[in-house]
């Protein structure tokens, strides 16, 4: 899976977050040292490699809920360049930067600073990323990624936390890329065989 970066929106948002004194936004020469300290803290068994579970224990959402294990697996798959199944320090640097970019992006679209992204906020984010998705689809996406189930919170509106926001956006991006590769005449319609369909879905889950 290629590592999808949330385009120019994140660059601005990350810069804002850093200047606002974000705790984990190393921007100077000590960045590597800080990351090293953090890496050793996350590497609880001192193996020099981070497993999916070590990383999951270290990553929390704005509301302190633990990261969805699927999102952690996705991140590890993206940055495990030597295919060891774990994350070494050099790989960790890339992964860390990626999470920081997404954090900035998440803050940009969490307009009401609720720590979660609701239907309108997610719709705006996806449209800003260039995905022409319908409100109905966004509602489905929220339903799929809402860790607390849909429409159970007091305002009757489902929303998603940071980890699932990243996963939802990367999912849409990956599927859109697959679709566009088949939609060679760019008319928004594709005709695919059963085999092609299976291939598309299986690759999405890789
Ligand atoms: Ca370890
Ligand atoms: Ca590795
Ligand atoms: Ca929000």
Automatic annotation (TrEMBL):
Say yes or no: keyword Calcium present.
yes
GO MF term set? calcium ion binding; calcium-dependent protein binding
User: According to its UniProt record, what is one Pfam family this protein matches?
Assistant: EF-hand_7
Identify the InterPro entries for this entry: EF-hand-dom_pair, EF_Hand_1_Ca_BS, EF_hand_dom, Peflin/Sorcin_CaBP
The places in or outside the cell where this protein is found are: Cytoplasm
Q: Where is the EF-hand domain?
A: 30-65, 97-132
Q: What is this protein called?
A: EF-hand domain-containing protein
**A cellular component term, taken from the record's GO annotations:** cytoplasm
Q: Which Gene3D superfamilies match?
A: EF-hand (1.10.238.10)
- Alphabetized UniProt keyword annotations: Calcium, Cytoplasm, Metal-binding, Repeat
Its domain of life? Eukaryota
């Amino acid at each position: 899976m290629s590592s999808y970066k949330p385009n120019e929106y994140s660059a601005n948002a990350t810069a804002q977050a850093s200047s606002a004194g974000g705790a984990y936004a190393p921007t100077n020469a000590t960045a590597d040292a800080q990351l090293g300290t953090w890496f050793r803290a996350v590497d609880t068994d001192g193996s020099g490699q981070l497993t999916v579970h070590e990383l999951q224990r270290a990553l929390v959402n704005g509301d302190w809920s633990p990261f969805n294990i699927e999102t952690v697996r996705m991140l590890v798959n993206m940055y495990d360049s030597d295919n060891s199944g774990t994350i070494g320090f050099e790989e960790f640097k890339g992964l860390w930067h990626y999470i920081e970019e997404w954090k900035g992006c998440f803050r940009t679209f969490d307009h009401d600073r609720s720590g979660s992204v609701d239907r309108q906020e997610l719709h705006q984010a996806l449209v800003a990323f260039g995905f022409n998705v319908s409100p109905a689809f966004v509602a489905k996406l929220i339903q799929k990624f809402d860790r607390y189930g849909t429409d159970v919170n007091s305002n009757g509106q489902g929303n998603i936390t940071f980890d699932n926001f990243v996963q939802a956006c990367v999912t849409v991006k990956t599927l859109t890329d697959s679709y566009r590769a088949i939609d060679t005449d760019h008319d928004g319609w594709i005709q695919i065989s059963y085999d092609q369909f299976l291939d598309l879905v299986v690759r999405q889950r890789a």
